[in-house]
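Hi P.,

Sorry for the delay on this. The queue was packed all week, but I finally got your sequence through. Input first:
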Amino acid sequence: AAGGWIETVTAMQVDEAIKGPVQSGETIEVVELGGALGEIAYTVPGSPKYETGKRVLLFLDKNDRDEWVSKNMVVGKFAFAAGRLERDATELIGWDEQTGEPHREQHRDEVRFLRFVRDTAAGRRANADYFVSDPRIATEGLTPVPNAAAATTYLLQIAGRGLRWNRFPSGVVFLSHGTQPGAPNGGLTALSLGLAAWTNDSNSNIVYQYGGTTPIAQTGFGASGSADGVNTVQFNDPSNEITGSFSGSGVLAIGGAWTNGSTHTINGETFLTIVEADLVVQDGITGPGLTGNGFIHTITHELGHTLGLRHSDEPPPGGTSTSDAIMNSSVNFNGDAFGSTLQAWDIEAITAVYGSGGGGGPGPGPTPCNAPSITTQPLNLSTINTAVILNVAASGDPPLKYQWFIGAKGNTSQPIADATAASLSVQPKVTTNYWVRVTNNCGSADSNTATVTVNGCPAVTINSISLNTLIIQGKSTMLSVDAFGGSGLTFQWFLGTPGSTTTPAGTGNTITVRPDFTTTYWVRITNNCGGFSDSDAVVVTVQPCNAPAIVIQPVGGEVMSGSNTVLFVGDTGTKPESYQWFEGATGDTSQPIMNATQASFTTPLLLSSTSYWARITNDCGTIDSASARLNVVNTCTPAVIIAQPKDQTIASGGSALINVSATGTSLVYQWYTGPVLDFSRPVGGSAPTLITPSITTPTQFWVRVTSPCGSANSIAVTVSPQLSIRRHPSRG
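Then the structure:
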């Protein structure tokens, strides 16, 4: 093609022209992405395939070179098949615009669907009764195949051979062009997460890396017919390689792999060698998924295609299959749960293709580990002045270890000394509850509670008790417990660990406490015949009361007329805090901004210069920020960093303030943890200063400063904890 990519041109005889400028009996040429040219081949999932002599119903569109193409690639092609008209369902990725659920391709009756199309084209009332639900022609369910498939069965294939890189662990570097409107960081966040997902899996030697931007605005080979050496990600389809725009179903993106005909052999399997890979993201994508998991899933999926991987639910003979995978042919774009997290089939595939085994199936899995399972529970017993024996039986990998406790199941506050066998002899003075925990190297299992009733006295059982809580110094909180068992229940609270009765704290099922420092409480409930139960510990954490203190003031500057910008205020102080932004000078509360109640504030579109400030309040005080003056201008100046952040060493567990200085119009700051161009871990707010999280190990940070007419990346700086030096006395 003119752009350098490979296209397949198919000549078609028109039997019937239902609508449009094409005439019956005419021969037309239909162009689609992908194909082979000599030894060079380019495979694109989502591009329709045509077979010689096979009839199809085509919805046609024109590309930007005025050539006929199937509308939205595979969406516009229907093949005649045994009385039905069928799309290539496994090539479709999209979602229902109304429900957000993944698109599920249905069967269409040939006669009724053609009648519907003809009536619609003629402007007649059309009856959409063409979907077929007859179970005799329903698609067969996916059938899992044992995980011993050959590597080729996980791959896209050309002439029966799978495509595979042969350069790992040397890195494959991708460059991006353009941005995806509405996606976080223009799409780079999703790209970073997708590259990391395939790279970080320990079962393979894949190394995918991001190398920055490129002016190249198209995929493909160079004019010489050889690889141009650039693996690109084209955001927002700058060269219209995917005809049209996305409209709720169809093609979200395409990921293609290139080969020049060279091969390599691993473990007896011969593969076509991938020499270049490209990814194009469609324009027009909208919906909640664009800022959530759906877009991340889509990019990760297409990167899987650039590794040569097929759709997980489109198995060749002998291949494994599932719909529960990143590489499944559809995605619940607005409700996706996977994001970039590889699923079992994805890991199985890259283990087979790029694992230490090279080209065969996955290696043997880990030796099964059987955690304990209680097979016989300890029984409730009664006693009068005699000992009774509690017994438990369990299965699981040896050695099994036992530990008995007093109390209800799960309460570990009263372990019984030397009670480490499957049987336990007890002679309690009052009705008492017991249980046992069985452990091995694979896990643990807890028995049910067994009650030993003394002289017919019922046991006391705790239904519920207050959870651990946090209060501000000087405040109070209520602790409560609910229990049953016998009559005349009394409640005695104590300070300290359960079992310690040296410091009483109050009586009753509810008490109010106001500790000066973090304190542990528990309660003993006793009935009138001596039965009792001790609760778990309840920890009341006391937080010092610190008024807000601003450490990052909102920063003004020049803003393009008709655009907005982001302001941020950073502070320390006891949480929770409330924020309120105002327009005007500091202290002027006459113009509060509706819904501007967070540390970060996006201004409305600005047509004239103005100022904003923030008030921060907590239970301990109030503070007002400085006023940030925003001057509206009509000329855009790109972002330029004039002072880079610097490395710092701080006390371990502390936080650092990192600063950058930049000039430009409508500046927005986004800080990240990690090396430059790692967009997967954003941190902080839009400000030239970052308050780092607690630092216990050396950690890198960098910032991207963006204006409407250009962005700039800082260097990565390292914040390190100070090493403590211990001096040992000399021994002379």
